[in-house]
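To close the chapter, one final illustration. This time we ask the reader to focus less on the individual chains and more on the assembly as a whole: which components sit near each other, and how the overall shape emerges from the parts.
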Amino acid sequence: MNAVRTARQRARDELTSAIKAEALRQVVAEGPQRLSLRSIARELGMASSAIYRYFPSRDDLLTALIIDAYDSLGAAVEDVESHVPREYIRARWQALCAGVRTWARQRSQEYALIFGSPVPGYRAPEETIAPASRVAVVLGKLLADGWAAGELRQVQAPPLRPGLAEQAEGVATAIAPDVPSEVLARALVAWTQLFGMVSFELFGHLVGSADPADEFFEHAVGCMADLMGLPAE
Amino acid sequence: MNAVRTARQRARDELTSAIKAEALRQVVAEGPQRLSLRSIARELGMASSAIYRYFPSRDDLLTALIIDAYDSLGAAVEDVESHVPREYIRARWQALCAGVRTWARQRSQEYALIFGSPVPGYRAPEETIAPASRVAVVLGKLLADGWAAGELRQVQAPPLRPGLAEQAEGVATAIAPDVPSEVLARALVAWTQLFGMVSFELFGHLVGSADPADEFFEHAVGCMADLMGLPAE
DNA sequence: CTCCTTAGAGAGCAGTGCTCACAAACAGGA
DNA sequence: TCCTGTTTGTGAGCACTGCTCTCTAAGGAG
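The assembled structure is written out below.
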């Protein structure tokens, strides 16, 4: 194994990403349904069977795209959230939410790839876990900061059943040390609300009620901030 | 046109539902991806081209399944909710939520059909709207009852921007007359939370945090009940 | 009984994912 | 430098898909 990659390895890397790029192009243009290995091969001027030297199956190609999508979303959210001064906890939450929504609207097919219905029989492989949790990590940090600064208001809510308390504890130790499980349980509620709302907007379930969804989105983000006890501003 | 259906019409109706039944069987067994007109035809002992006398395309068959799924969900939720005494507003909300979740877990492929990513290029046709709103109607009624009985507590929340107020007003006149738009806006938040949570559970996004999700579900339902100002019990 | 509509059959088209045997190109050791 | 084993790319081929077309054979209404 050499630090200088061989010509073969370089070519392989290049073709691998060329295939992914063309695959992504097709998914964006026509949705994952119509992603076709043969047409990728055609576009790249190679035999369709050659693709299989790079991805063992169509599903594996899709999985690669999913990982990239998770990473892209994570990076986008990290970016917008990082531009908010650390002490403005609520603004950081708002930035996180806006980041998710903006990314989702700009790259709806990739969003659908991650948060839409999983392909039947498809089990998310190990390697999706880390990129998938990037956004959650941002939320965890923001809560930890708020808690450490003593800025999280007490919120009246149902007490936690022991199993849930334990689960929340587990999440805490993973991404938000010291934050009480009551807060994390409610954060999980806010979390599912956020993605539920974005999914509904993108998948057309808000047509006829809150579409366009800009103001509704802002309102919901505020409600959830209150639910988590984030400071007023 | 006769009240007595002709033999031909009877045969058509029967075959239409036989096709749908076999299609549903396949979707449940292997997911919508693998639904194949040819294998339906094979299973029914007919030529594949004959299917097209009943459904102009594969997508149309899927649309028919989607409508059935909406109706099935609506009926299930209406049923469990109707067994709760009318005056227990909070219990009715809990029943609604439990009904959605139970149905979703029992018929996850059909749930994915409705709330998963829509097929690209697919626009929900007119005829899906009515069955799609059955569950929403249940929620609307429950809120209207609570409001009429003066049981909805005031909840402190961000004020509504004019556009959202108008949208909420529209929803109100459709399914929950007289209920103030503030309440309905928050109900929409609860609504998206509910389906976001169920989707996350079904699609595996809670693995590693709140899985199994029973207690988390109960907690979230309670939080959302509070958000809407539903009475304590 | 006639005539028109409709249901079904079967061949065929263009496309798919994926496999396999084969031939080049490459990489590293002798 | 040659030689050998591994990688890459090829093209034919299999079994399948959605969908269209033409043709035949059954209803059903007058």
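The longest helix of chain A spans residues 58-82. Chain A touches chain B through 61 residues (CB under 8 Å). With these observations in hand, you are ready for the problems at the end of the chapter.
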